[in-house]
């Protein structure tokens, strides 16, 4: 008898796309819903994260620059980061709903999901 518990299995990522598996442009037009802990999920499009306001963000912008906060700013930075995370994390069902809503409307350099599907049907 050992004290080692049974392993747990936790699903941590979903792929949401309107393009079929094997399509050349599928990854350009796919949203990933990723588990971030504490029952919360992020909705990701490449390097961007969907916010509660429906816009995509590259992450927390700190004082109009990419510099790290100096020690006197750490509390303000921590509060800003917590606020950003609160706006960019969702429960499981909300995250999947948002990903499904946004997937058909994705664009890449003016190229749409509909364009990619149309080209496939011609080929």
Word description of this protein:
The protein is α+β, with helices and mostly antiparallel strands and 123 residues long. The chain has helices at residues 74-87, 92-102, 113-122; strands at residues 13-17, 30-37, 40-45, 48-50, 56-57, 107-108, 111-112. It has one domain (13-118). It has three helices and seven strands. The model has no long low-confidence stretch (mean pLDDT 90).
Topology of this structure?
Layout: E1 13-17, E2 30-37, E3 40-45, E4 48-50, E5 56-57, H1 74-87, H2 92-102, E6 107-108, E7 111-112, H3 113-122
Antiparallel strand pairs: 1-2, 2-3, 3-4, 4-5, 6-7
N-to-C series of helices and strands = EEEEEHHEEH
Number of helices: 3
Provide the spatial order of strands within the biggest beta sheet: 1-2-3-4-5
Task: Give the % helix.
Answer: 25-40%
Sheet of most strands:
5 strands, antiparallel
Q: Low-confidence runs (pLDDT<50, min 5 residues)? A: none
Radius of gyration: 19 Å
Mean pLDDT over the residues = 90
Number of strands: 7
What is the overall shape?
Answer: flat
Termini separation (Å)? 61 Å
- Coarse structural class: alpha+beta
Query: How large is the share of residues in beta strands?
Result: 15-25%
Distinctive features:
5-stranded antiparallel sheet
Structure, briefly:
The chain is built from three helices and seven strands. The protein starts with 12 loop residues before the first strand and ends with a helix. The chain is α+β, with helices and mostly antiparallel strands and 123 residues long.
């Amino acid at each position: 008898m050992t004290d080692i518990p049974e392993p747990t299995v936790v699903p941590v990522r979903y792929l949401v796309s309107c393009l079929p598996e094997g399509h050349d442009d599928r990854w350009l037009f796919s949203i990933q819903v990723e588990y971030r802990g504490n029952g919360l999920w992020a909705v990701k499009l490449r390097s961007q994260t969907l916010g509660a306001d429906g816009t995509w963000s590259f992450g927390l912008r700190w004082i109009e620059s990419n510099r790290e906060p100096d020690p006197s700013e750490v509390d303000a930075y921590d509060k800003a980061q917590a606020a950003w995370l609160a706006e960019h994390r969702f429960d499981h069902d909300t995250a999947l709903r948002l990903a499904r809503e946004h997937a058909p409307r994705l664009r890449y350099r003016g190229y749409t999901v509909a364009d990619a599907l149309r080209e496939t049907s011609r080929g």
